[in-house]
Specification:
Layout: E1 2-6, H1 10-22, E2 27-31, H2 34-43, E3 48-52, H3 60-69, E4 75-80, H4 85-93, E5 98-101, H5 106-118, E6 128-131, E7 134-137, E8 142-145, E9 148-151, H6 154-165, E10 171-172, H7 173-181, H8 190-203, E11 212-215, E12 219-222
Parallel strand pairs: 1-2, 1-3, 3-4, 4-5
Antiparallel strand pairs: 6-7, 7-8, 8-9, 10-12, 11-12
Helix pairs in contact: 2-3, 6-7, 6-8
């Protein structure tokens, strides 16, 4: 299960990430601000989003409303200390599919995640971006042109998609590191270079490797 955790409490976030990875065998991305939660949710696929209500730069309710308004159909679990009936109604009306009150037992959180992942949510609409005859499909992590298709790993596609969305702009390596791997990961900056090298190798199959450019001492950009 791919999970996006949006939680600004470091102690709680550390615990949830640890438990989800070690006990529930989940892949977890962790952000601490509302704007980051919105960005991650709209640029990668997650089976469930665990959304804290109170976060800086956009609270969970606001993020839920924006995601639903944009057509996001994935599962969202609201996580909060607010426990009145009116709070629950507000959280669910904002677009959350379920609501869990802090403090909670991890077994209950895990069970709710499994239940949400089994529900028949609206099918994911293939979200394609087209640039000069190149079609980038976020649902399948495919890049195609004409009859040729290239399959990318989720991480490779996430990096490539970040550059494509900001085409023509130079993105610093530090920003790429934060957006794609997260600040709490233990990978090094060299991982970015290695991933870019793999992406270029795959793009060379359709003679598009030059689209992904290195800017010495700064970072990378996707040139149109």
């Amino acid at each position: 299960m791919n999970v996006l955790l949006a939680e600004d409490d470091k102690r709680l976030g550390d615990l949830i990430v640890y438990m989800l990875k070690k006990k529930a065998n989940c892949n977890v991305e962790w952000v601490k601000e509302g704007e980051d939660a919105f960005y991650y949710a709209t640029t990668a696929h997650y089976d469930v989003i665990i959304m804290d209500w109170m976060m800086p730069n956009g609270d969970g309710v606001d993020v839920c409303k924006r995601l639903r308004k944009q057509g996001y159909s994935g599962a969202i679990l609201m996580l909060t200390a607010k426990d009145t009936v009116q709070d629950r109604i507000q959280g669910l009306d904002s677009g959350a599919d379920d609501y869990l009150v802090k403090p909670f037992e991890f077994d209950e959180l895990s069970a709710r995640l499994r239940a949400l992942s089994r529900r028949n949510f609206a099918p994911i609409v293939e979200d394609e971006t087209e640039i000069e005859g190149l079609f980038f499909n976020r649902a399948s992590h495919l890049v195609r042109t004409g009859d040729a298709e290239i399959q990318f790993s989720p991480r490779e596609f996430q990096l490539l998609d970040l550059l494509v969305q900001n085409k023509g702009q130079v993105l610093p390596r530090e920003l790429i590191y934060e957006r794609v791997w997260g600040l709490d990961t233990d990978v090094t900056m060299k991982t970015i270079d290695a991933t870019v090298k793999l992406i270029r190798k795959k793009l060379s199959k359709i003679d598009k490797q030059d689209k992904l450019q290195s800017i010495r001492g700064v970072g990378y950009k996707f040139e149109t």
